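REQUEST FORM: STRUCTURE PREDICTION
Request ID: SP-0412
Submitted by: Lab K.M.
Chain count: 1
Length (residues): 131
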Amino acid sequence: MTQANLRRGQGTILVVDDEDLLRSMLENMLQRLGYGVKLAANGLEALQRYEEAGGGIDLVLLDMSMPQMSGLECAAGLRRLDPGVRIILITGYSEASLRDGVRESHIRGFLQKPFRLQELSERVAECIKAG
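STATUS: Completed
RESULT:
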């Protein structure tokens, strides 16, 4: 898929990852695809940003492994704030190894690290479109 064939979109995405470099990389990639981006360095910050946005976040990209609060714990907290929250889990683990936790957390999508811009564009567009 060429740059011209990437799936672009609109909306605001909250990126939650404890790694500065990955947060910055995802911010740049998503902005290239046309999305607005908010950043959080951990689960507690993510809950605060989501609540402050008051429904203005269309999708959350959530790292699975973070200190203080795991991705699944953060997903549960986001779900308490908004039962309709859309979440894509980002992890180095395989989807099969996380299947039960993902199903219980009502995760909408899954991206296994490392991933390419084309995979990101497709997954994000699918989750936002599915509303």
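NOTES: The first strand starts at residue 12 and ends at 16.
Reviewed by: T.R.
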